[in-house]
User: Fold these one by one.
Assistant:
Number 1:
Amino acid sequence: MLAYILRRFFYALPILLGVNLITFALFFVVNTPDDMARMQLGVKRVTPEAIEKWKAERGYDQPLIWNAAAEGSAKATKTIFFSKSIRMFVGDFGRADDGRDIAREIAVRAGPSLAIALPTFVLGLFVAIVFAMLLVFFRATALDFGGVILCVALMSVSGLFYIIGGQWLVAKVWHWVPISGYAPGLTAVKFLLLPVVIGVISGIGASVRWYRTIFLEEITRDYVRTARAKGLSEAAVLFRHVLRNALIPILTGVVVVIPTLFLGSLLTESFFGIPGLGSYTIEAINAQDFAVVRAMVFIGSVLYIAGLLATDVSYTLADPRVRLQ
Amino acid sequence: MNLPVQVVVLWSDALLFALTAACASFAWWTRRQAVLRAAWVRVGKDPVAMAAATVLAVFVLVGALDSLHYRARLPAQPGQPVHYAVEVNSVLDALLAPLRLNTEKTYSAPLATRLFAMETLPGSNERAFPRLVYGGAHLDAALDGHDGDVVRRTLTGLGGGLLLWLPVFLWLRKKIGAGDTVKNKANNAIAATLLGIFLLTGVALSLGSGYHVLGTDKVGQDVLYLSLKSIRTGLLIGTLTTLVTLPIAIVLGLMAGYFGGWIDDVIQYLYTTLNSIPGVLLIAAAVLMMQVVIDTHPDWFATAAERADARLLALCLILGMTSWTGLARLLRGETLKLRELEFVQAAHAFGVGPLLILRRHILPNLMHIVLIALVMDFSGLVLAEAVLSYVGVGVDPTTISFGGMINAARMELAREPMVWWSLAAAFCFMFILVLAANLFADAVREAFDPRAS
């Protein structure tokens, strides 16, 4: 097991390097640092000195990949590629445009992001599986048909409307919770309640339908017939046998998401004013802070790859027949 | 030549019509394929799918009318060469000219006769809600009979819609004849949907000639006009993106599955890497960089419409480049299976080249997967446009889109009383479009997926 994890870890390195190259190409080759400086300083009134100053402040005043002027190993290290891209592997993301250290900012903001994303994820999973089970229990009845139609209708509403509608109804009309904001500690609960509920509702249509298909496929198997033949009740068949056997396809879709929960949700966080990584990213996009966006892309892919690894490991836990070598 | 208009073909228009032509030729090819034709017949017998298809057809019609662009000729000066207006308009703009040109000063509620905001009236110090310039302008100063006028116009609209619908209905009835009950059901669904559309259009036309049916926005533009214009943006993003996705996914997926070996390794590495970057972040990064390119090269684009069009196309390109991985993986898996089947082995044994095998024996057997992926992706892309525009990496701010409408309306939610009509209009139009696309996609998947019963 450990050997497997180690080997997977080394397989992940080329992928991360690829991600790194893609972001490097996107941020430094498609547009030269001069272009970025001109864009941020305003295209019209810009002097060469201002551009040089902008580049020096951010450390973009080096050659892209090869520094012929430097000595020895500095030929490769005193470059934008090394100082901006390779250094990300050791957690050095540089500074944002406001001068703050990006790595520290990310560490601070991951907490609030997780405080929203984790409850949304767990509650959403639970609710979706329960509803999907209900639909499967009443399969081929009017309830099932109506449920599926409702799911499609829920899927057809943009996530923006769930947030806007929820904020308007619950916070503005009913005054149950504050419209937006965040506070550390236990007081955070009143701020988190609404975003979590909205997050669950906005995801429910697609996931209930997805789990329903998985369960329906499972229910035609022989072991289900056997279980029924030996006189088990339909509820026992569904919850004890079908649910357990459906775990593998469920895990495939679910576990990979868990590490990326750290990233938070762009929309929810910015609408509710939660100081997490999602709102950090949106602010960076709006302010065109390229260093932050680059760091978030890299961290996002690290977390995704961690999720892929966790998925494989979770298979062995869910199904003893799966062995990793 | 002194044409009254100068036809303008934007890149997105050309691509959209090319796509339409491709769809038509695909349909023609399908007619000769017994299996595919049978599947389409199954879709055609599904009442829900046909109702959804009717709604989609209306949306496509609006989008197509909005894709025929022209520049109007300016009034001729004697002895001067002919000039055309800088503004690029579409046929839809011309049809909706009253809506487009009758702008008020700022917000006004649906069917309102007065502005939403108080103003100091000229010649006095009193503050009041001034009358609208166009909404309810035909009413007298005391606004007597406003309610009666609205009711009268609504009834006229309903009656007109019904009258226009009847011949269509009778034609549909006559075409199928009695007996075929399954087909009858589908046709009834079409007729019922058409009735709804005709009635709504009738009411909108009849009320729209005197009022702003869905109100006006911050700069006084008619919200109904904005909603109709947004349809083209949504359709373009939903369809042109797949135009980018399909070739990449098909070529790479088939190659990885058929050739195996190092080609498979390279392609798998490529899509695993792309896939491991969270979608929104990759799109945001790419769009940011594209903005830099467009902003630093203002000389590339002659008109604002062209720049907005380039940005829309670039967005489709970026969305396509980031979303081909799922389909490619699916096609690779299926190709792996097909490659081992006897008819492919036989073709191989006869010395048929790999390209011909892929084109003639493998690709046609994967068409159902491609088609299902195409229709399933559409609704997601329409929804994605709104979110991306909100995040700030969507279409050009001058392009009218659902995302832009929501974004503008969101700022006004804190107002008291609330400005709700822009949001409501964007919600309704988007919901109907996406719901119809989802229902149609479900029917297509059910009919084409061999695993479905």
Number 2:
Amino acid sequence: MSNTFSLILLVLLGAGFAMAFIRLVIARTAGDRAVALDGATLISVDLMVLMAFLMGRSMLLDVVLVYALLSFLGVLAIARYLEGGL
Amino acid sequence: MNPDFLLGIASVAGVSMIIAAVRAIFVRDLLSAIILVGFVSLTASVLFFLMDAPDVAITEASIGAGISTVIFLWGRSKVREE
């Protein structure tokens, strides 16, 4: 992969992460924060996959797999709590 | 991989981690504080990932994102409203 292409990808993912983070900090309700946390988690999963590819180490993909599964569990628990079920 | 990329990602993750932690202290309701603590554990996992510690990053992801968010929400629903 060329160097400029990976730089463009990193800048785009960083911009998405920054927008999700700003929404997480200045949100009005807790539902906004839950959606912003979900977006930041998905973008950081992409970022970690890109870093594992650039480092050339496939062992780091296990971390991303575990994190993607467990962050879905966390967002599911928050949504269940907001509906009054938990 | 270029070390400037690693430095940029690490600085973005660290600064957002500090801001989210301070916001979690001063936020009004407890559910928003729980969500912000989940974000802090997310950035901690990214920083452990960057420091070439995949086992610590797996542990931080499973404890921080999976267990502690669910346990905090469960305790929040048990505590009566003040």
